[in-house]
Amino acid sequence: MHMGMPESDYPDIRELHLFSDMEHENFNALMRGTYLQNFPPQVDLITEGEQSDFLHVILSGSVELSASWNGRETTMATVRPVSTFILAATIKDAPYLMSAKTLEKSRIALIPSLDVRRVFDTDNNFARAIVAELAQCYRSVIKSQKDLKLRTSLERLANYLLRQQHLAKGPQEFELKMEKRRLASFLGMTPENLSRAFKGLQPYGVEVNGNLIRISDQDDLVKFAKPFSLIDDYSI
Amino acid sequence: MHMGMPESDYPDIRELHLFSDMEHENFNALMRGTYLQNFPPQVDLITEGEQSDFLHVILSGSVELSASWNGRETTMATVRPVSTFILAATIKDAPYLMSAKTLEKSRIALIPSLDVRRVFDTDNNFARAIVAELAQCYRSVIKSQKDLKLRTSLERLANYLLRQQHLAKGPQEFELKMEKRRLASFLGMTPENLSRAFKGLQPYGVEVNGNLIRISDQDDLVKFAKPFSLIDDYSI
DNA sequence: TACATTTCTTGATCTGGATCAAACTCACCC
DNA sequence: GGGTGAGTTTGATCCAGATCAAGAAATGTA
Question: Lowest CB count within 10 Å: A76, A173, B62, B83, which one?
C-alpha cells in the first residue's frame, strides 16, 4: 500500500459526479491522504459493524456488499467502477451496515473518512454532490425494497434480466455479470430455486447457457415481467 | 388551504434538525411559500409516479407510505411527527417512488419543492442538514432490507415488538400504533399470518389484547428475537 | 492429464406463508 | 338497540420456495 494517488488515477476519480464540482484545492487535499491498492479476489475490505475509516472508490474490478444475521447471509448489492460505496456511514461517522469483499481483482481508492468529513464541512459543492449521491442511493434501495415486497422470485428474475439486458445496450444475448449463487442471494432466493426459475422463464423465450443469456422473445418476456420505471429504472 | 405559515407552527418546523441551522432569512423565505393544511383521515396526499411539487412535513397525526405494482400493494413505512417525507424526490426533482396517505387527522406543512431546491443551492447549512437526513433515511432502508431478507416473519414480528417497546420507553405493556393489517403489510406478511404469528410468540411471553401488547417474559422474547443493533437500532 | 473442489442442476420432500372461506369482534350510525 | 361494514381471528387447503440429497458440469490444481 502506498500513500498519495498516482497521477494516472486522478481523472477517474475526479470525473465522478461526487468529486467533479469541488474546489481543486480540496480535491487535492483529499487525494493527498488517499491510499490506492490492488486487491486480489475474495478479500474482505469491510466488515459490518466496524467504524468507517475510509470512503471507498472502486476503480476496476467488482465488490460485493453483503449483510448477515444469526448465521444467515445475504447479498445486498454488487458495486462496479467507477463508483463509491459506504458513503452514508462515512458521512455519519457510523458503523458500516454491510460487509464488502472483492469478487475479482480490484483497484480501490481509500479516502480517509476524517478527510471526507472535513472537506464536506468546508466545500459546498462537495456537500451538494453528496446530497445528490445519497438521494440516488436512497431511491435505489427503495426500488429494491419494492422489488422484494411486491414481486415473486420469478418476476424478480425476469425483471433483473431485462435490466441487465438494458445495461448491455439491449442485445438479444448478454452475459450475467454475477455468479449464479450470488445472483440468487441478491434476488432473495436459493441457488436451487434460481436454477428452476430460469427454467420457469423458458416459456417466455429465455435461454440460458452458462453465463450467457439469450432473450429470444423480448415482447413475451416483457409481457410477463411487467417492468415498471418506479422499480426498474435506476436512472430516475 | 391558506398561504404562509401561522406563527404558532414555525417553532415545530424550525426545531427539526433539517431546518435548525439554516439562515433565518432562508428559513423565512421557505415558510413564506409554505402551505399548511389539516387533512382528515384516509386522504391521498401523494401518488407514486407524480412529480414532486412539495416537501411534506408532518406536524401531527400519521401518514402511511405505500407502493404498488401490478395490482399488489405494500406498506413501506409510517411517518409520525415531527418529520419530513419524500425529501429525496424533492431534491432530485424526480417522481415520487411511494404514495402517501393520512391515517389519522393530520396537520401537514407543504413546502414548495422549487423553494427547497433554491434554498438548498444557496444555504450551505441547509445542504449539510439534508445530507445528514438523507444518510439517516438511506441507512434506515438498508436496515429494513436486512430485516426482510435475513429474518422469517415470526422473527420480524418479534423484533418489531421489541423496537416498539423500546420506543415506548420499555414498559411491559404498550400499544400498537398501527392497525394490524397495516402492520402485516409493513412486515411483509398477510393479516391472517400476522394473527398466527402473534400466537406463535405466546410461548415467548407475548400476550395480545386488541392493540395492547404485554411482554411478560422479556428475556425469553429477546432470546428468540436476537435483536441486532445493525438492523434494529434506528438511532445509528 | 488426472484429481479435487466448487458451482450448478435436478429430483424428492418439506414447510412457511398465502389463499380461501367463514365466523367473530368491534366501532360506527340510523 | 339493532344493523352495517370493516377489521380480526380461526380453520382448511394450497402453493412458492426452502431444504435435503445426489449427480453433472465447470474450475482450479498437482
Answer: A173
